[in-house]
Design a protein that fits this description.
single chain; 457 residues; alpha/beta; Alpha-D-Glucose-1,6-Bisphosphate, Chain A, domain 3; TATA-Binding Protein; 8-stranded mixed sheet; 21 strands; binds magnesium ion
Length: 457
């Protein structure tokens, strides 16, 4: 049998192959053993048909070591993260394989305060898991399992509470197309949009256990909403992945914007409004944090506002931690992940939607016109197989082929040039390198990737 993949972003596997009830159960016991305090845990899942199996095994494990579990049923990742912090749970778990296809399932672990498990937490959790150092309790100490399907609505209330001028959005009556992939965003996202008086056109918001398309919010998977928007005039289209942390956007013509634009638009709005919003000025600095792979659009927008951008290794937690250190007002990742700290120190598609609608309302412009104000780049995201290849030698070879003094080594290698970059990272879980390259011209970015391809051989 294959083993599940255990990494910084949690545990994932193919259900029935590497993710079986016994493994899930052991993770439930291990997590519950690791979490201290009153062991009040909140659990939510996306809509995958396998979710019930995973949740039941997981909760069984949690109860066996004395956890008091509040089960939300279907709930997005940012919602579970938000509730963990807001309601002071001792931990939170999301059952979802995020953008991975439907045969996968997974869990993501949060700790008190709503931060993701870091390397140290994962190490200790795995130690308990591998050595079976479980703290089973006497039956008299068992806690009840609570069901609460209403709690997730608090997340929407919180997102709404940080909107500056709700009436201006409401008065626009935006016509919005929404594809939630029949997944975790299917309930709460329509709720948010209706609160904002949007004329909502839903494409896939039926949580029937199956996905109508691959849940990764990239152009190839989104033919249906693109077709719908070409036929039916809307102001904007929103697309969420299966656990609704990532957000992709379509303009009023149904053109899919690269997922890099989601954060760019959010940064653009928050920086332009920062000085007018007291609670932001009071609690956060006018700085931006994003990862090393994210588009240079972020730097260009920030420099327009004379604002500093801090870059971190790839990974939501890396960005979130740096945002806490810098007290940054906005941050996130180029994969459609907006982090707006008043709501969550994690990617949150609901905050992203709220910010983009505020931008549309405030600017009084169509989305395509706003995009014209942003710098234009071409980006290629790809990967190469490096099985049987010596990575050190490969990196030396690439260094010779891409002469620049600006090489960042915080996370793989990032080669920076005046108007372009190439970022190369070795995967922790597969024998591949991931390459992200960006330049203002198509030919230039293609050339950069060709250099890497030639070096890999
Ligand atoms: Mg996700």
């Amino acid at each position: 049998m294959n083993n599940p993949i255990i990494s910084v972003s949690g545990v994932r596997g193919i259900v029935g192959e590497s993710l079986t009830p016994d493994i899930v159960l052991k993770f439930g016991i291990s997590y519950g053993t690791y979490i201290k305090g009153d062991k009040k845990i909140v659990v939510g899942k996306d809509t995958r048909i396998t979710g019930d199996m995973v949740v039941n095994a997981l909760i069984s494990g949690l109860l066996s070591v004395g956890c008091e579990v509040t089960y939300l049923g279907i709930a997005p990742t940012p919602t579970v993260q938000f509730l963990t912090r807001k309601l002071n749970f001792d931990g939170g778990i999301v059952v979802s394989a995020s953008h991975n296809p439907i045969e996968w399932n997974a869990f993501k672990f949060y700790k008190k305060g709503g931060m993701l498990f870091d390397n140290n937490d994962n190490k200790k959790l795995l130690e308990i898991f591998n050595q079976k150092k479980y703290d089973f309790i006497d039956w008299r100490k068992y806690k009840k399992l609570n069901y609460d399907t209403k709690l997730p609505e608090l997340h929407i209330k919180e997102v709404l509470s940080f909107i500056q001028n709700i009436s201006s959005i409401k008065s626009k009556k935006f016509k919005v197309a929404l594809d939630s992939c029949n997944a975790a965003g299917s309930f709460l996202t329509p709720m948010l949009l209706k609160e904002l008086n949007c004329d909502l056109k839903t494409i896939y918001t039926s949580p029937n256990g199956y996905f109508p398309h691959n849940p990764e919010p990239i152009k190839n998977n989104l033919k249906d909403i693109i077709k719908f928007m070409k036929k039916n005039k809307c102001d904007v289209g929103f697309v969420q992945d299966s656990d609704a942390d990532r957000l992709a956007v379509l303009d009023e013509y149904g053109n899919f914007l690269s997922e890099e634009y989601t954060l760019a638009l959010a940064v653009y709005y928050i920086l332009s409004e920062y000085d007018n919003i007291n609670f932001l000025k009071k609690n956060y600095t006018k700085t931006v944090v994003t990862n090393l792979s994210t588009s240079k659009m972020i730097d260009d927008i920030a420099s327009k506002f004379k604002v500093k951008v801090y870059r971190t290794p790839v990974g939501e937690l890396n960005v979130a931690k740096e945002m806490i250190t810098r007290k940054s007002v906005i941050g996130g990742e180029g994969n459609g992940g907006v982090i707006f700290p008043p709501v969550n120190y994690g990617r949150d598609s609901f905050s992203g939607i709220a910010i983009i609608l505020q931008l549309l309302a405030k600017s009084n412009l169509k989305l395509s016109k706003i995009l014209n104000q942003l710098p234009k780049y071409y980006m290629i995201k790809t990967k190469f197989n490096i099985k049987n290849i010596d990575v050190k030698k490969l990196f030396e070879k690439i260094k010779k082929e891409l002469p620049t003094k600006r090489i960042n080594k915080d996370d793989g290698l990032k080669f920076e040039f005046d108007d372009s970059f190439v970022h190369i990272r070795v995967s922790n879980t597969e024998p591949i390198i991931r390459v992200v390259a960006e330049a203002p011209k198509k030919e230039k970015v293609k050339k950069l990737v060709e250099v890497i391809e030639k070096c890999v051989g």
